[in-house]
Design goal:
Elements (H helix, E strand, L loop, with lengths): L2 H14 L6 H10 L2 E6 L5 H11 L7 E6 L2 H15 L7 E5 L2 E3 L6 E5 H10 L6 E6 L7 H18 L15 E6 L4 H7 L5 E4 L6 E5 L7 H15 L4 E5 L3 H14 L9 E7 L5 H5 L9 E7 L2 H4 L6 E6 L2 E7 L9 E7 L2 H9 L7 E5 L3 H6 L14 H9 L15 H13 L11 H7 L5 H12 L3 H12 L12 H7 L9 H18 L15 H13 L4 H20 L12 H12 L3 E4 L5 E3 L5 E4 L12 E9 L3 E9 L1 H4 L7 H6 L9
Parallel strand pairs: 1-7, 1-8, 2-5, 2-6, 3-5, 6-7, 9-16, 10-12, 10-13, 11-12, 13-16, 19-21
Antiparallel strand pairs: 3-4, 14-15, 17-18, 17-20, 18-19, 20-21
The chain binds cytidine-5'-diphosphate and magnesium ion (MG).
Magnesium ion binds next to α3.
Length: about 675
Amino acid sequence: MGLNGAANELKIHRMRLPIWTGKEALVNAVKNNNTVVLLGETGSGKTTQLPQFLFEAGLARDGIIAVTQPRRVAAISLAARVALEQGAPLGEIVGYNVRFDERTSRHTRIKFCTDGMLVRELLLDNVLDRYSVVVVDEAHERTLRTDMLLGSLKRIQRERNTGEKRDKDGKRLKPLKVVVMSATLDAERFSQFFGKCPVLYISGRQHPVQICHSKAPVEDFQDAALRTFLQVHIGQPPGDVLVFLPGQDDIESLAKSIRGYVPQLPPTKQKVLVLPLYGALPPDQQKKIFDPPPPGARKVVLATNIAETSITIPGIRYVIDTGLCKERSYHTRHGGSGLDELLIKPISKSSAQQRSGRAGREAPGTCFRLYTEQSYSQLANAPTPEIQRCDLNSAILDLKCLGEDPMKFDYMDRPLDDSIRGSLITLYALQALDSQGRLTQLGRRLASFPLEPALSLVVISSQARACTAEILDIVSLLTSTAKLFVDNADTREAAADARKKFQHRDGDHLTLLNIFRSYEDVLTGNHNAESTMANGAPANTGSRRAAREWCRVHYLSEKALNEASTIRAQLRGNCEREGIDWKVSCGDDAEPVLKCLLDGLFRKSALKAPDGTYRQIGMQQVLKIHPSSSLVDRKPAAVIFDELLITSAVYARGVSAVHASWLLDTPLMNSNARNAAAPHTNGHA
Ligand code: CDP
Ligand code: MG
């Protein structure tokens, strides 16, 4: 097919989407109203088409159209799709901006970004003057950043659209249009929030979906998913399969078992193409989801809830729903101990309906729910908005930077007052706020880093302690979304052996540093003359291959290490803007690095008690060192850690040893905590 043929095909595909018939009505509604809520079945064309309609109708003439997404993956792939439909290279008319990655130019008129990125832009310009339209997509997901945006957009509209705020010449600002898009039936609430604005509906093209519940409760969802897939594959007519799983680990492990089982099937059976889909997947692998499988093969996509509404996969006739998702939640019952963790949770009814709906996009389909009908009836109707269940520290800091009062902000759903207060106290302890609750200069600096406030403080204090090079390496690896250690139960021992040489006696943070540095030595050190590029660029194919092999034998994720390099590059930029020299290194001296980590992570520090368990400073939480830590046997007198994990007990993960005496200088060390400390645990173990 020639280029024109392909372009035609695209055009025809666009015109067949359910949204197309409503084009004029939609454009008019946006022209005539400040805010419009748009409701439509997943796959009806909202995300890809509406921005183009508005652009073609001239609504991007004096400002950019921003389209926000909760997930990076979706923002990038949607931008690529819309650029293709516009017949323009990605990054020109259509671009994207997500954390640690941006492709835009001064010609960009349609910009896909994560909701978090737009919140960051608010910090630089609190009326979003560059934008003429903000489309808040996937609003039903009610992420923390989406909720912060909704409240802020309402304020901006008041300031821009009524002339309340003027530019420096006293002229009125140009009005801001807002479109809130949702795939579920919660439109009324958004409309209420925006002063009863109009709601438009796109009637989708949904085919009937037969729903089969499990007869009895499922004990092992991995096993049940595998069996169900094999039954579909063996017994059901052609059609692709979509399996919803909670997280990346579950996806990788099911992918492995399916790939292991399929060769044992009779050779007459169709081939199987297994495709994972989750937030941290690199864009080139993500693209494969949209391709038809090779002739005679069945495609099975293993996805997180990303495939619920934000990405529509063609060809799906069967859905297997484990009924589970991973949800970040924050434990106020621990008195705000920093227990912010990803937990596997049952989904809501509205998610279950969205998931089953994915089977009926192109033809009648079937959904196999790996839970009983009774369990279904007990699910919550809709998920709790993230703002009511997560750590609010960085959100509250952002609100402070925007000049908002977090206690009075216009929340669509208000978080608990206790959570807001807890964050205010943490921010005060981090010295981001003064005793009057006013933003300090340090607070503003903390907010300028794309990190949680505690880690921003670690980076900033590395300047005074002269170890920024080391700290940026560690913080970048801690922030990477991909998992660094890729061993499983079978390979755990071999992996531990292979990685022994990286182990640092002071614990896991410095071990990370050793790993990152060894990786980079392989990547840059081993090149031979012919493949070295003149500019010394490290990524020649020879050393790439060596680095990949090095990752394999050490059971480390190359993806996580590469991502960390990207993050570090951005953090270096942040440091330069803050006047911090990121090249300053402390060499082999571990002390400044540990002290620096403690400067930010002091809320996540603990002292050993006589029974060998630990007490978290300031909250008396009892915890143990996680078995994956290099300090599990050494048990130093005082530790800091990255996160708590609750399983049979509360475990600290990512642990380093610190001097117990150092803890005395931290803001949280009060008499209570001191009493809890064991009398014999002075000094470094
Ligand atoms: O936002 P909504 O769920 O209403 O639909 P959309 O994301 O705009 O998708 C409309 C159509 O574009 C679907 O049929 C998708 O399969 C297609 N699409 C695609 O082929 N590639 C993408 N990267 C995104 C969408
Ligand atoms: Mg969409």
